[in-house]
Amino acid sequence: MNNRPFQRAKQTKVSDLIMQELESMILDGTFKAGQKLPPERELAERFEVSRPSLREALQKLAARGVVYSKHGGGTYVSEQIGSSFTDPLLELLSAHDEFLYDQLEFRDALEGLSAYYAALRATEADKAMLTKRYDALVEANLKEDASQESKLDTEFHMAIAECAHNVVLLHTLRGLCSTLEKSISANLTNLFDKPDARQHIMAHHKTLYEAIMAGKADEARAAVHTHLVFVEDNLLKIRHEESRIQRSLRRSENTMN
User: Fold this and answer.
1) Domain range 84-241, its CATH number among 3.50.80.10, 3.40.109.10, 1.20.120.530, 1.10.3720.10
2) Most buried residue, 52, 69, 93, 131, by most Cβ within 10 Å?
């Protein structure tokens, strides 16, 4: 039998605990990329620690590139958080219409899952935030402001991702947000030229919102699928119409020649 005394476990430093807490808050979306952190005094009071311990934690995060400081301007979450999703490949995908349907399929998978968990996990605070985003989208829809609708549409779907309380899912969707907004903007521009499309799309959002608020997970996921199938079907019809027009124009040019 080994009679050597047990070695005392290394005590975790206060600054490391603060660092872990701040990391969690960045991961769960409390603090977003590029956002300014609250003042040191406020953070120290929130964590009930000394300002030197807090400052040490921030220095450790800065050394790892998670946060950075502006001279006399406070501490900010790095803009590079989630930058692995801003690869030039995504810009290429968003610039080529032939990959639009691949994006819609990907959205169906991720956003359907996001809506499912949002319905199961949304807190009262989450629901208040989601309601605010939904109401803003409704207002823009009534004004028929397409550019504002595409922006608020993206924000509505990102709010759902926050309500899902899945950090990996949230940051995947957040990292793809710029590409997603371009996709939504392009889709709306095309679809709003069709009669009643705006009303159909808003009805889909209403069904999705109400399912999440009521905690109906399967209905929320189905609402996402219904919405994106509608978008895909109508975009295909538009493409086919454009193709017929182009063929007709080519025949006319050949006849004239």
Assistant:
1) 1.20.120.530
2) 93
Q: Which two tokens stand for residue 242?
A: 């454009």
Alpha-carbon distance of 164 to 130, in angstroms, equals 11
Q: Is 14 exposed, middle or buried (0-12, 13-18, 19+ CB in 10 A)?
A: middle
pTM, to two decimals: 0.65
Cα separation of 252 and 257, whole Å? 9
Q: How many Cα atoms occupy the beta-carbon half-sphere of 126 within 13 Å? A: 25
Return d(Cα 82, Cα 67) in angstroms, integer. 13
Radius of gyration of the chain (CA): 24
Q: What is the widest separation between alpha-carbon atoms in the chain?
A: 103
Q: How far apart are CA 103 and CA 109, in angstroms?
A: 10
List the one residue out of 35, 34, 154 whose CA is nearest residue 94. Answer: 154
Helices (H) and strands (E) in the chain, counts: 11, 2
Task: Check: CB of residue 18 under 8 Å from CB of residue 59.
Answer: no
